[in-house]
Amino acid sequence: MSAYGQPQYSPGLQPAGPYPPYTHHAQGYGMPSYNIKTEDGLSLSPGQNSLLNYSNYSSTPPSQALYGYSTHGSSISSGIFQGANPITSSTPFNTTQQPPLDSDIEVMLQPPLDSDIERVFVWDLDETIIIFHSLLTGSFSTRFCKECDQVHIDDVASDDNGQDLSTYNFGTDGFQSPAGAGTLCLGSGVHGGADWMRKLAFRYRRVKEIYNTFKNNVGGLLGSPKREEWLQLRREMEVLTDLWLTQALKALALINSRPNCVNVLVTTTQLIPALSKVLLYGLGSAFPIENIYSATKTGKESCFERVAQRFGRRAVYVVIGDGVEEESVAKKKNMPFWRVSCRPDLEALSHALELDYL
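RE: above sequence
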């Protein structure tokens, strides 16, 4: 993905040319010896190149040498970082491994002045060093082929052969890789093959059964003490949001009370997390599972088209939301749009419903 006109690069690092020479000026400081503690309990010194290995970067121009970061007793100089001329430290190695004097420590740990810095590496955090936002939105799964998400709960029902699942073991059917591998949907079998799709359909059938069983009783699904903890958390959130959910539930209930009206949910959240949210927030009675669509894969316009095809041209469609995408699609399809940007907007919606204005 290009950002701010940034050109698209292939996975291999492809610099335009050699880096400019990095001339190191001798400074009265060095790097103290230290160990890096890894998650598996092993301690690695900076000299061990098993911590970082960029051997696949083969496009570095031959003129580029290595950064050699010298420390007491170890150095990073085995191809971990590839840049310009070697950096040498004016502080000699402590070859005898004797503890330095206090005066030496003061000199070694003294940071350089800002004006002495010659190269600054500015890092982005999210999606560069850590993966967070894209996990929530599902874009990570889509980009790296780790999802088997669907738009609608019945999208894979045609692959279900109706097998009895009462004794079916989802954990050992080969659809999921060994525990901890994080590769659901990438287990044995051909991805998208008949056997793979059948096993996927089994999972969506089971999800549908769970939803319909607990749509009015999520506490029964959570069990104690999680039920009490979640209900308390919901109460606290309602206080913090000025009863936002309560007001939304009022509008949903008014629509549900009409014999010729229906609530449909179109969300950018992936389908399974969306179903979980609906249950947890007590919205199961307002949204039958057949009325929930995920726009993660296809976008909201495609979902709106599916909804319109399902209920026909005679129906009047009112779009309720806060985002630009749903407002744009509603305008394009000549559907009235009710913007919700604050709680009074939900109050006004309930009032309009009570007076039969909508």
